[in-house]
Amino acid sequence: MHLNTDPQAPARRPCLRDLARLTTTLLPPALVMLTPLEELERRCQEIDLTHPEYREETPLVRAYERRRRTQLSGALRLVRTGTAAPAFSESATRA
User: Fold this and answer.
1) DSSP letter string, 66-84
2) CB-based contacts of 12, cutoff 8 Å, min separation 6
3) How is residue 88 annotated by DSSP?
4) Where does the source fall among the domains of life (predicted)?
5) Neighbours of 38 (CB within 10 A)
6) Which residues of 45-75 are buried (b: 16+ CB within 10 A; e: fewer)?
7) In 10 A of CB 86, how many CB atoms?
8) Rg (CA), the chain
9) pLDDT tens-digit profile of 20-78?
10) pLDDT at 5
11) What pLDDT does 74 receive?
12) What is the distance between the alpha carbons of residues 45 and 54, in angstroms, rounded to a whole number?
């Protein structure tokens, strides 16, 4: 049995030009900052359906806004670095 459907297009990588166009026309930064996250999720899904060329860029906008809001919320979070350097130097601990 053969179905007459087109194969799904492979996922593209996000494009900086498309991201700039998305944030200037459909999701301006002021709108993104003032919109509740649930509404932003819904709007991004709507953009994915109506403008499929921005499908790779909308997750970047959502992730950036989530990260921005958590940083501005004042919540403490653990940041790990790649090195195992001590928090204080030897001279600071002796004093």
Assistant:
1) HHHHHHHTT-------SS-
2) 56
3) S
4) Bacteria
5) 8
6) eebbeebeebbbbbeebbeebeeeeeeeeee
7) 8
8) 21
9) 999 999 999 999 999 999 999 999 999 999 999 999 999 999 999 999 999 998 866 67
10) 73
11) 80
12) 10
Burial class (CB in 10 A: 0-12, 13-18, 19+), 14: middle
Question: Which pair of tokens denotes residue 29?
Answer: 């930064």
Q: How many CB atoms lie within 10 A of CB 43?
A: 18
Residue 91, classed as helix, strand or coil, is: helix
Residues 47/49/52/57 CA torsion (nearest 10 deg): 40
Residue with tokens 């004093």: 95
Can you tell me which residue has the tokens 């709007």? Answer: 43
Contact criterion met (CB below 8 Å) for 59 and 22 = no
Does residue 93 carry a pLDDT above 60? no
Strand segments (E) across 1-95: none
Q: CA-CA distance, 44 to 19, in Å (whole number)?
A: 13
